[in-house]
Amino acid sequence: MEPPTMNPVVEPLSWMLGTWLSDPPGAGTFPTLQPFQYLEEVYISHVGQPVLNFSFNAFHPDTHKPMHRECGFIRLKPDTNKVAFVSAQNTGIVEVEEGEVNGHELCITSHSVARMSFAKEPHVEQITRKFRLNSEGKLEQTVSMATTTQPMTQHLHVTYKKVTP
Predict the structure, then answer these.
(1) CATH 2.40.370.10 matches 8-164
(2) Which residues form the THAP4-like heme-binding domain (predicted)?
């Protein structure tokens, strides 16, 4: 079966498409956590619709046991640079982030964050993300968050190398 033609609406995000692996391991920190590292595989694809599909799968760097997981969709408002990022996470958080794509940079901030009733405290209240394609052709992601006990603080930074288009 032939791959679908990319919908022109998502063309401004085509630089994100592919399978990406963290290289080197990602770094995590937060005032309430011990610093940590993680491996992550990212898969961003399209099926011809005006939306990208994504999954982020993090693993412990030594044991390779699964850690954080999230999946969802990235949608552009037609004829604009406005972007919505809709995500469901294995931690019980569901979020909608909105922002803009400018060239090879996507900056988004949570518009709404919902969680399951028995989610672990402290609760995440706001998230910001920045994706950018650097001069070496690697994808970088920086995630910051605010919780019920901490102000907006950088939480994750990871650089990915592309392994498949």
Answers:
(1) no
(2) 10-162
- Locate the domains of the chain by residue range: 8-164
Note the pLDDT tens digit of each residue in 88-115. Answer: 999 999 999 999 999 999 999 999 999 9
